[in-house]
Write a structure and sequence with these properties.
107 residues; 4 helices; mainly alpha; 76% helix; rod-shaped
Length: 107
Amino acid sequence: MTLRQVGGTIGVAFLGSLLNSEYHKHLNVSGLTDQAAAAVQDNVSSGVAVAHQMNSTSLLASVQHAFVGGLDVMLWVCCGIAVLGILLSLIFLPKRGSISVTTPLEQ
């Protein structure tokens, strides 16, 4: 149970950081004031709000594209982790017929 809790916490932190990093990498804030750019880079909700306030479809498209790009990378990493888990399970878990159980009468 402890490993599950720690793994979940670290996984969320790692995947969240990856998503945030990719969001910033794909985001286009050229032509914005420093305050607007900081708000857009803060999070997706702020980016959408700023785009609506400025009535800028290009900024909205940039925020959406950056978020989806970040999600794509994050989900591919999740896929890789799942495939790795499957491979490790196939390698290290015992085969169905290889477990021998002895009863007290056989001893």
